[in-house]
Automatic annotation (TrEMBL):
Family recorded in the similarity comment: Belongs to the PTH family.
Gene3D superfamilies: Peptidyl-tRNA hydrolase
Active site as annotated: 23 (proton acceptor)
The keyword tRNA-binding is assigned to this record: yes
Enzyme Commission number(s) from the entry: 3.1.1.29
Location in or out of the cell: Cytoplasm
Task performed by this protein: Catalyzes the release of premature peptidyl moieties from peptidyl-tRNA molecules trapped in stalled 50S ribosomal subunits, and thus maintains levels of free tRNAs and 50S ribosomes. Hydrolyzes ribosome-free peptidyl-tRNAs (with 1 or more amino acids incorporated), which drop off the ribosome during protein synthesis, or as a result of ribosome stalling.
Catalysed reactions, as listed in the record: an N-acyl-L-alpha-aminoacyl-tRNA + H2O = an N-acyl-L-amino acid + a tRNA + H(+)
Site (Discriminates between blocked and unblocked aminoacyl-tRNA): residue numbering on this chain: 13
Name of the protein in its database record: Peptidyl-tRNA hydrolase
Species annotation: Corticimicrobacter populi
Length: 196
């Protein structure tokens, strides 16, 4: 069995102007996870973000929403992981994914960052790509037949039909979290990757 997840990280950009944008899908799932765990976020400048913690089966789970901008997410993740002596394999980063359509959600460990600046910075800060990624599909402007550039696309809110699909994917992610927190990744993958 794999190491259970001890640090849940949601990626996004701070500030009300970004709250409903596609790039903040990681924040959306983290807010739901905190609610499910009976935890609430508070600002902690030592960890460069909003943090929450919960006990589950005697283990302490940390939740983190970096308040640095996306491309500096590693500053928050690295600081918290070092402070609590959390290994990269015990970290789950939840983020938006251009290569998946809205409604899709996929789990993977390691790999590249595919140009995602938040993942790139976290990989550098942890000194390893071995952390887990929960990828929430937001689609790509080309596959969604939009004329927007990627930078503008991720910093705009999804259209209503896309939001409904993204919310459905986030719900699937919430349901899989207990398995992830227990280190039962094969069960989580089966549930997450099954289309329903």
């Amino acid at each position: 069995m794999s190491l259970p997840i001890r640090l849940l990280v949601g990626l996004g950009n701070p500030g009300s102007e970004y709250a409903r944008t596609r790039h903040n899908a990681g924040f959306w799932l983290l807010d739901q996870a905190a609610s499910d765990l009976g935890a609430s976020f508070g600002m902690d400048r030592n960890f460069f973000g909003e943090v929450a913690s919960a006990r589950r089966g005697g283990e302490r789970i940390h939740l983190l929403k970096p308040t640095t901008f996306m491309n500096r997410s590693g500053q928050a993740v690295g600081t918290m992981a070092r402070f609590y002596k959390i290994q990269p394999e015990e970290v789950l980063v939840v983020h938006d994914e251009l290569d998946l359509m809205p409604g899709q959600i996929k789990l993977k460990q390691g790999g590249g960052h595919a140009g995602h600046n938040g993942l790139k910075d976290i990989q550098a800060a942890l000194g390893s790509p071995a952390f887990w990624r929960l990828r929430i599909g937001i689609g790509h402007p080309r596959t969604l037949n939009l004329a927007q550039q990627v930078a503008a696309f991720v910093l705009n809110p999804p259209r209503l039909e896309e939001q409904i699909d993204i919310d459905r994917a986030i719900d699937k992610g919430r349901k899989a979290l207990p398995q992830l927190l227990d280190g039962q990744f094969e069960f989580a993958v089966r549930d997450l990757h099954t289309e329903n």
